[in-house]
Amino acid sequence: MKRFSTLYLVSSLLTLSLSHAAVPFQLTDSSPGSAEFRERFLGNYGMLSELEPSVSVQDKPLFVRVEPFLRNNPQQAIQVLESALNNESSPAFRFLLGSLYYQTSRYGQAEQNLRMAVKAFPDFRRAYRTLGLIYVQNNRYPEAITAWLKVISLGGGDAQSYGLLGYAYLTEGKYQSALSAYQMARMFKPDSVDFRRGEAQSLLETGQYRQAAALFEELIAEQPTVPDTWLLQANTFLQLERYDEAIANLEVVHSMGAGSRDSRFLLGNLYLRAENYRPALQAYQAGLAQPGELNVTSALKPLDYLIGRGLIAESRVYLQDLQQRLPATLTPEQQDQLALAEAQIERRSDDSAAAMAVLKPLVERNPLQGEALLLIAELELEAEHYEEAVFYLQRAQSLPEHKVDALVALGRLEVARDDFAAALKHLRAAQEIEARTGVARYIRSIEQAL
């Protein structure tokens, strides 16, 4: 097992996976379906903009026929327009029909008509705006970015356009662009929860941790029961090395009944770093007890850390809990990791025979398991079974990723046998492959002794 060195921080948990399949957060006051923006949309049916296609005298009777149905009976309005439009109709009516389809959540037909409108009138700003709404609501964020940039370039820069542009950028992982868009959006609507949260996440992703932490603090003060905000602020605290505050945030999240297996493992890591071993074990156990499918690779990491810290009693407790929750089928690598962990626990409990009983079948099953070969060699060396130790170390030496460790172990073995010349040969060979400060000191001490 590898020694515990750096704290395992599950940053993917806290910074959110931003992809086409996942969004950074659920929109609230800037959602296309929010009351404010819905009212704005319903006021979008007028034909008064001098920047957009006009309606001829011949077309006005159609608008008069359809206008009474626009707000309260969109389906009837659609039927009137569908029966009257042809390829020569004004793009204003294509926009109107596309908007009605959007209002009734028939996004494919809405997009088709809106695209016809902008093809006939390339600067049709309101048509691009509605296309932008469609793309956001259907998670088509690259297309949403293009649409909102077009709206803004045509003079439509406002809270909605900059806010949803920022959201699309954030979802696509374009954090600096998202930050710029959200800062513009807040000029129009500074108190928006969505805009502040989007800006805070963008600050976090661009490494501006203090500003992000302060903005998350503002959001928490206003809405203290939103777990994600506490989690995101915890991530800023991790980046700022304010570990106690990160622990406090995670405890708040878990007290709400929120969080996940990974957040509990992260809490355990933080307690372990602070040498608070009992709450660390409790957090790890709570992580194992979380419902849902167990990720065995992630669940093995706390075991590695506990053993690396020499917490053998805690390691044994965690291993027992883990074994009760393991799936029926494990990969060969996972089987090896479990066996190595068990052998380490037995060895550090001064039960070499029990450790050997685990390790021997392991190397028979997997002759190339270098960590097991090295551990068996250490046990043989401790028992002064030098020839057996050499046998296993030579096997480990043939594995490139374990060659240096095997050579160093051979050097220690030869020192135990008082063959200092042979020891120096092995240690110098190890240093030629990978220079290590500790090995260099060991070589100097042998040379001085000679």
UniProtKB/TrEMBL annotation:
<dbReference type="Pfam" id="PF13181">
    <property type="entry name" value="TPR_8"/>
</dbReference>
<keyword id="KW-0677">Repeat</keyword>
<dbReference type="InterPro" id="IPR019734">
    <property type="entry name" value="TPR_rpt"/>
</dbReference>
<feature type="signal peptide">
    <location>
        <begin position="1"/>
        <end position="21"/>
    </location>
</feature>
<feature type="repeat" description="TPR">
    <location>
        <begin position="91"/>
        <end position="124"/>
    </location>
</feature>
<feature type="repeat" description="TPR">
    <location>
        <begin position="159"/>
        <end position="192"/>
    </location>
</feature>
<dbReference type="Pfam" id="PF13432">
    <property type="entry name" value="TPR_16"/>
</dbReference>
<protein>
    <submittedName>
        <fullName>Tetratricopeptide repeat protein</fullName>
    </submittedName>
</protein>
<keyword id="KW-0732">Signal</keyword>
<keyword id="KW-0802">TPR repeat</keyword>
<feature type="repeat" description="TPR">
    <location>
        <begin position="125"/>
        <end position="158"/>
    </location>
</feature>
<dbReference type="InterPro" id="IPR051012">
    <property type="entry name" value="CellSynth/LPSAsmb/PSIAsmb"/>
</dbReference>
<dbReference type="InterPro" id="IPR011990">
    <property type="entry name" value="TPR-like_helical_dom_sf"/>
</dbReference>
